[in-house]
Automatic annotation (TrEMBL):
Coiled coil: none annotated. The chain crosses the membrane at residues 63-80, 108-127, 139-157, 163-188, 209-229, 241-260, 300-323, 329-351, 363-383, 395-419, 431-453, 459-479. The gene is MFS2. This is Major facilitator superfamily transporter. The lineage of its organism: Eukaryota, Sar, Stramenopiles, Ochrophyta, Bacillariophyta. It comes from Fragilariopsis cylindrus CCMP1102. Residues 1-35, 499-525 are annotated as: Disordered. Belongs to the ATG22 family. Keywords: Membrane, Transmembrane, Transmembrane helix, Transport. GO terms for cellular component: endomembrane system. It is found in: Endomembrane system.
Length: 525
């Protein structure tokens, strides 16, 4: 097992000490007081970093919440189609063309995703300002977590009379979920500088492994309930919300109240500036800084996220509509599809780590997106042409989709954690999240438009995945991985797992960073 030596500069160490107080941790798993035994429990899994342990608790809750959204979306889609009269007569090719509230019933779910993305794009800079310019990062995380739990409680009452209002709440929930991510992403670069490059690969992979493992367990439980009790789509959605309400209360409470540490404001609000607008100003200033100082690496990474993340985020929503309408899978079959997908995601996490070990995060991330585009294109075209009695073949497609997602997400996170400039984690985290949302509304909107014009949904799936190819194009314009690290002026020692000072660290420390990328599975005693 890797025993990581963590050397943090005095300012960061003092910040951790001031925030923790008596009986809390120092950010590296070395807590004092009663919580010491508990907070070192996952030492091997996360190198003792308590913030990483906190993120893992939140990841398990988010995994179940995301999977619950699958059953809730299926329930809302069923109720929308029922209200539109889609079940009154046979439907050709499984697609319903009847409107409800001025839109076709099958576009209701993707329209929800579009609304949520527009809200996120507008309000994320405000949330980012609270994270950056105030010491309330943890408070923002707690408030958004409480709102997510409250909405889940209300959505247990999803029935024929309330489905449209619950759809509005679903859009609000998806928007609040993105605000929660703003606070969490800000922790990742700080964790990377504490545990080192080699260990951060393991931490990043393990966080996603926990999220996807909890997703798989939840899906197995819900699908088992559906098969055993033959519950309808609506009842299944209600049960899933009830379970995730309880589990979210537990995991969110442990993550936020026990493990995750407070953070001070990065800087005060400039004199004469308004806090609520400063997030937009900060994003603009950070974008100009990227264009001026980090235009060979980080700039293209952010541009790649503008197009890749909308595709990655829309996959689940689009597949729910495609599988239920075009392929005509039942609620239990959709559950099995996503069980297979999530299990494959867990395997894909290990696959991504292996490929990254042998190459670099830059090349590995590009390959993952090429793979995802090909998988979605081939799968949609093949499934659309097979006989209806072979629709279970879609499970094989789920395996390949899961492998790609498990490879894509941890590699993306690792890439960002290693190239963000030291001391600028908060503003660059905010800009990254904003980049992932600025066009997130476009992909589901295009899918909805294709439905409105009666275009076969298989082409909508291909269009959804096309953002990955655009992202790969931007990554082809970067410099080498070693030069990206050099340009970012990262103070992470690439030849050991310690953290060094890239600026003003003296000749000895300056020569330690060779900007090489050793195999990440290399273990040191």
């Amino acid at each position: 097992m890797v025993d990581t030596a963590v050397d943090i500069d005095n300012e960061k160490l003092n910040d951790n000490g001031n925030n923790n107080g008596n009986g809390n941790n120092n950010g590296n798993g070395e807590g004092e007081g009663e919580g010491e035994g508990t907070k070192s429990k996952y030492c091997n899994f996360y190198n003792g970093n308590v913030d990483a342990i906190g993120l893992s608790w939140l990841a398990s809750g988010r995994g179940m919440l995301i999977m619950s959204n699958i059953f809730m979306a299926t329930s809302l889609l069923f109720l929308a189609k029922d209200a539109a009269g889609c079940f009154e007569e046979p439907i050709a090719d499984g697609q319903c063309n009847k409107p409800i509230y001025g839109m076709k019933a099958e576009s209701f779910i993707t329209n929800i995703a579009t609304i949520a993305a527009v809200l996120a794009a507008f309000f994320m800079p405000i949330c980012g300002a609270l994270v950056d310019y105030t010491p309330h990062r943890k408070l923002v995380g707690i408030v958004t977590a409480l709102l997510l739990v409250a909405i889940q409680v209300i959505q247990i009452g999803t029935v024929e009379q309330t489905w449209f209002a619950m759809g509005v709440l679903q859009a609000l929930s998806a928007f609040i979920y993105q605000l929660q991510l703003v606070t969490l992403i800000a922790y990742l670069p700080e964790i990377a500088r504490q545990v080192g490059v080699l260990s951060m690969t393991k931490v990043s992979s393990n966080l996603y492994l926990v999220e996807y493992a909890s997703s798989a367990l939840f899906l197995v439980a819900m699908t088992g309930i559906t098969i055993a009790f033959k519950t309808s789509a609506v009842v299944t959605g209600q049960i899933s919300r009830g379970i995730t309400t309880v589990m979210s209360m537990i995991t969110f409470a442990v993550g936020w109240f026990i493990y995750l540490t407070p953070r001070p404001a990065v800087r005060p609000v400039p004199e004469g500036h308004w806090l609520l607008l400063e997030g937009f100003n900060q994003n603009w200033r950070t974008a100009k800084s990227v264009q001026k100082h980090y235009k060979h690496g980080l700039r293209y990474f952010l541009l790649a996220n503008v197009f890749a993340e909308p595709s990655a985020q829309a996959i689940t929503t689009v597949l729910i509509v495609y599988l239920s309408s075009s392929i005509e899978l039942s609620i239990s079959q959709i559950g099995i599809f996503f069980i297979v997908t999530v299990i494959a995601v867990c395997i894909g996490t290990g696959l991504g780590r292996f490929i990254t070990n042998k190459t670099t995060p830059l090349l590995s991330w590009k390959l993952s997106m090429i793979y995802l585009f090909i998988t979605h294109m081939v799968g949609a075209l093949v499934l659309d042409g097979i006989p209806h009695d072979l629709k279970e073949m879609s499970y094989i497609w789920g395996i390949f989709v899961g492998l790609g997602l498990g490879w894509y997400h941890p590699t993306q996170t690792l890439f960002f954690s290693l190239v963000v400039p030291p001391g600028q984690e908060a503003e660059f985290s905010g800009l990254l999240v904003y980049c992932t949302q600025i066009l997130a509304w476009l992909t589901p909107l295009v899918f909805s438009i294709l439905i409105e014009f009666d275009v076969p949904q298989k082409y909508g799936v291909i269009v959804t995945a096309s953002g990955f190819l655009i992202a790969v194009f931007f990554l082809m314009l970067t410099c080498s991985w070693e030069d990206i690290l050099k340009e970012s002026n990262a103070d992470i020692d690439m030849t050991t797992t310690t953290v060094t000072a890239a600026q003003g660290g003296g000749e000895e420390e300056g020569t330690k960073n060779k900007n090489t990328y050793p195999p990440l599975d290399e273990e040191r005693a």
